[in-house]
Structures are given as structure tokens and as C-alpha cells.
Fold:
Amino acid sequence: MSEQFRMYDIIDKKKRGEALNREEIAYFIRGYVSGEIPDYQASALLMAICFMGMTENETFYLTEEMVNSGKVMDLSAVNGLKLDKHSTGGVGDKTSLVLGPMIAAVNLKMPKASGRGLGHTGGTLDKLESIPGFRVTLSEQEFIDQVNSINLAIVGQSAELAPADKKLYALRDATCTVDSIPLIASSIMSKKLADGSDIQLLDVKFGQGAFMKTIQDARHLAHTMISIGRKAGKVTCAELTSMDQPLGYEIGNINEVIEAVDTLRGKGPKDLLDLCLHSGSILLKLANAAPSLEVAERRLRQAIDSGDAYRSFVSMVRNQGGDVRYIEDTSLFPTARYSYEVKSIADGYVAEMNTYDLGIQAMRLGAGRQTATDTIDHTAGISLKKKVGDRVRRDEVLAVLHSERSGIADIGREVLADFTIRGEKPEVPPLIAETIYN
Ligand code: URA
Structure:
């Protein structure tokens, strides 16, 4: 390790609010990954970053060092532009399962590396693994061949991408240093810069069920990530979307796959379809595949109406070893042993939903993980029957819980408390708040 720096001085510099230079950041990341810098010094620096922040340049150097800590995917053998969309994490967010096939159906390429769910947020990989036989691990060659032949593949993020982020994220999780905009931005972008895509759309969630509770923080995070993308020479753009209520009606795994399949068949919830059309239109426009957002949206709608997007999903499932009979007839999916109806105790309108807690209760039912090593029950989850703005009568069902675990009535009481019912009809806030271009 370089004799030029001492970790103590770097912590002290950040504690005093000064900007670290590229060499100091490189010293920290390399030393931490090699094990020469101990957790207690890394934790102290992370906490100082939480309090004092980082400049755009520092955040970029940190991202670059994390990219350089591992492998950068070489997808140059994929013919054509490689599009990607990344969500900062939400509840009921099955967008990738719908958007990927829509993009593939209009003959653009989406080689996608996705993550697993943790805490209140779900993960695309867990959802796909609820399809019997579906393989989320492909060799690099299989991945490239599949994208070249059917335009789409969704796999797990390789452990070789940005290993510094993995080590740092575990430390941040244990030291209460996750919620820092430069740390979140560098963590997300280190994986996005390493994944080999050309065009990146970031879906930055804000609101009660998101990491970023306010639109101001979401905007700040979006600008920080776009600045990193620009400095790295990658086309990066962001949309700010609300997580004040779950996306669609289903929270879980099998039930989310079924909702995605319904959407691809033109029978899905409007909010999910609207978000996929919005995200897809931006990607088509950035790829110069459509002259305007309106034309792009028309083409994507046509991909749904014609059944092409649904067929792209079926092709992906088949190519990745999944049993397509479950997609063709979703009633084949197993159902949970127990279900429980959560009923309203008042007349009125759903005014608010505690989206974060709904994600937590879905996790407690078995649909998610409290820690990274927990296993998932793919049949578990919550089916919402009412959303914000809906009229409800006393005793009407608000949600149905599904679980292999008995005694879920106590979770039912928590879910009931997640619905705020008021006498007057509320304004339903828009799902898509802003788009921020590079
Ligand atoms: N997602 C990430 O990948 N990193 C963060 O720090 C937060 C969300």
C-alpha cells in the first residue's frame, strides 16, 4: 500500500468537510478491498461522508474506483445499442418484466443484469425464479448469444462487477451509512458503468415506499447519477416516479409475474403500463429509434396490442430454461397454503397507503428477505384490492394476504393499519413526476 497516505488523515480531511482527491479515494478503495484498511476506519470515513457530503468530482472518482475494483462487462459482441433501465427500488415494481419484452419486441436490445430484493423492496431475479426452471445465471457467451437472437436476457449481476461496492454496501448496511446521496449514487452507478450497456435510464423512486422520501432528494440523487454517467461518457437519463403507493396491485413474486404477464397481454393495471410506456419511449428516443416520444409510445403500445411483447417474454423464459406452460396458463402456478382477507373497518376513500410497511409485511409473509441469506417463499405476498383514491365500504376487502406461514392474522392487522381511509376523495398524485435528460 502507498506510503504517501494515511487513512487517519483522509478521515480527518473529510471530517473537516474538505474534498478528497482522486489519489486519496483510490488509496481508500484499494486498501479497503485488499483488507489493509480495517472496517473501523472505513466506517469512520463513510460516516464523515454522510455528514459532510462529496463534490461531483469526488463522487465520480469514488464510482470509478469501485468500477475498477472488478470486471467491466464486454458486450461489444452484441449487435446494436444496448439499453438498460434501473430502478432505485420500490414495492410491487415489476417494470423490468414488462419493459424488457416491449423493448425486445420493437427490435432493440436489452441485456439486463438485475438484483435481488432486500428489506421492503422486491427484486427482479426473485420474481423470475418463481417460474419453474428459469435460470438467472448464464455464461457470458450464452448471455450475448441470447441477446443477439431474441434481443433480451435478464440475469443476476455478476459477483465480479464492482466488488468494492459489495464490501462497502455490507458495511454501510451495518453502520447506518446507506442514506447518503453520494454513496447511493456511486454504489448504483459503479454497477451500471460496469454492466456494458450504452444507454441508461434511471427510475429514481421517491415517496413513502422509496429510499428517497422527498422529490427534492430524488432529484438530487438523479442529478448526481447523471453527472457520473456524463463524466464516464455514458448516455444517462432519469425519471422521477412516485412510490407513495405500490406499483400495480400485486406485491410478492409469483403474483407479480402473473401481473406482468397480464400486462403483456394487454390486461394489466394502468399505472404499470403507463410507467413502462414512459420508460420505453425515453429509451427509444435516446437510441434514436423514434423521432419523438409520441411515436415511440405508439410503437410500444402496438408491441403490446399485437402480442409481440408477450411473445418476447415467452421467448426469454424458454431460452433461460423456464417452463413456458406456466406463462401460457398462469393458473398452473402454485398458490400459498394460507390466505387472509383484510377488510375495511370504515366507509370512505383510500387516502394514503403506507407503502414502506406494505413491503415489510410482504417480506414477513415470506415474499422477501430480512437479511441477504434468507430464503423466499415465491407463493407469498399481498394482492391489493384497493388503491389511493378508491371508494371503500365497511367490510369491503382492501387486500388479500398469501403465505405458507400460519397465523397471519397479526400481519393482517398491520396491513389494515397501512390503509388510511378518509371521508373525502383525495387527489391522486401523479406517478411520473419528472424526466431529467443528460
Ligand atoms: N441500491 C444500491 O445499489 N446501492 C445503494 O446504495 C442503494 C440502493
Q: What stands out?
A: The chain has a mean pLDDT of 96. The domain at 7-53 is CATH 1.20.970.10 (Transferase, Pyrimidine Nucleoside Phosphorylase; Chain A, domain 3).
